Amino acid sequence: MEFGKLSKTELKTLQAQLAKKFDACKAMGLKLNMARGKPSAEQLDLSLDMLDQITSRSNVVLPDGTDCRNYGLADGLPEMRGMLGKMMGLPAENVIVGGNSSLNMMFDAISCCMTHGLPGGKPWCLEEHRKFLCPSPGYDRHFGVTEYFGFELITVPMLPTGPDMDVVEKLVFSDPDIKGIWCVPKYSNPTGITYSDETVRRFAALKPAAPDFRIFWDNAYCVHDLTDTPDHLLNLWDECQKAGNPDLPVFFASTSKITFPGAGVAAMGASDNNLQVFRKHYKYQTIGPDKLNQLRHLLFLKKVGGIPAQMCRQRAIIAPKFEAVEQIFEQELAGKGVAAWTKPNGGYFISVDVTPGCAKRTVALCKEAGVTLTGAGATFPYHKDPQDSNIRVAPTYPPLEEVKQAAKLFCLCAQMAVCEKLLES
Ligand code: PMP
C-alpha cells in the first residue's frame, strides 16, 4: 500500500489511525535517545579491564628504558604507532599517536594549515575565498570544523560508491580556492557505505588546482564490521604512492569505538613532507602525549587478542541492534513509499531518507513522543538538507529493547509526517 496512491479520504482515515497510535505512545512517557553514535554501557564494560592493566609498577618503564610517566616521545609509543598504523594501513614511521580524540587532531591539522600553511601554498587564513568539499550526507562535526574556520562548505553528493567523483574531480581540478575534502571512507557516517576501489583510485590520482589541497581521510570505522561479509576498502596510502601523489592524503583514526570514547587513543598519519609541518606545530603545542594511556591500550588490546578480537566482542553487542532496527523498518515501512534506509555492513549508523520535505517533521514528532534523534539537516553543511529528507539513526547506545521501541516509534512518526505532507498537497 503506497501512501502516494491513496485517495484523500483514505489518507485521512490512515492519519486518524496513526494519530491514535501516536497518542498511546506519548502516554508511555518514553525517554529514548538515538541521536549520537555512542557505545552503550555494555560496550564500555568490555574495556574495563584496561583500567587494571597499568597497576603493576614495573611495566610503566619499557624494556628500552622509556619511562611512560615522563615527558617525551612526541610521536607516541613506537609499539602503539605500529598497532594503529597497521589498523590504518600506514607505515608506523608515518603515524603520530596523539591524545584522546581524532577530531581534535583534525581540528589541529586544519588550524595548523590556517596559520602556517602547507608546502606550496600560503596560510589558509590568507585565502579569502577558501572552500572545503563536504560529501553529504556526512559527519556534522567535520563540517562544523571547517565552518568554524571560515571555509565555504560545498556539498558533494554521496553515491553508493562514495562521493560523486565526477563532481570532485571537476571542482578540485578547476578551483584553487578548494583546499580539502572530508572523507569517511569505510562505513561512512551516516550512510554506512564504503568507497569503491575506483573511487579510492580516483582520489589517489586527483590533480588539484591548489598545490596545498589535502584529502582528510577519517577512517573512524576502519575495523567496525557488523557482518560476516565485511566491506573492503582499498588502501589510499598505497594508491597515492603508486600515483605519485604521496602528499595528498592525511589520515585519521582512533580507538574511541574500540575502547573508550573520550579516553581512547587517536592517531594521524601522513607523508614525511606533511608530517614535517604538523610535527613543528605540535612541538610548540605539547611536550608529548599521554603515554600511560597508550601503554594501557597496548597491554589491554594485546591481552584480549588484538583489535580484531576486541571488535568481535563489540559486534556481538551492537549487531543485534542494527538487525532489530532493519527488521522493524522492513515490517513497518517497506512498500509504503515513505522511506528508504541503508543496511550497512559496519559502522555506527543507519541513514534514512524519508519522503522529501518530511525529515524535520518526523524528528519533531519523535521528540514529542520521547525519542531524541540527530537533528534533521545535521548531516549536511550548515545543517541544511536541501531535500529535508535525511535522518541519521544511531542504534548503539540504548539497550536492545529500547532500540526496538524507538525504531517502532520512528516508523510511526515517519508515516505520520508523510501522510500530513500528502494531505497538504
Ligand atoms: N570521525 C567520525 C566519522 C566519527 O563518527 C566520530 C565520532 N562520532 C569521530 C571522528 C570522533 O572521533 P574521536 O572520538 O576520535 O574524536
TrEMBL record:
**Protein name as catalogued:** Aminotransferase class I/II-fold pyridoxal phosphate-dependent enzyme
Q: Which UniProt keywords are present, listed alphabetically?
A: Aminotransferase, Transferase
Q: InterPro entries recorded for this chain? A: AspAT_Ic (IPR024551), PyrdxlP-dep_Trfase (IPR015424), PyrdxlP-dep_Trfase_major (IPR015421), PyrdxlP-dep_Trfase_small (IPR015422)
GO MF, one annotated term: L-aspartate:2-oxoglutarate aminotransferase activity
List the SUPFAM superfamilies hit by this protein, alphabetically. PLP-dependent transferases
Organism from which the protein derives: Caproicibacterium lactatifermentans
Q: Name one Pfam family in it.
A: Asp_aminotransf
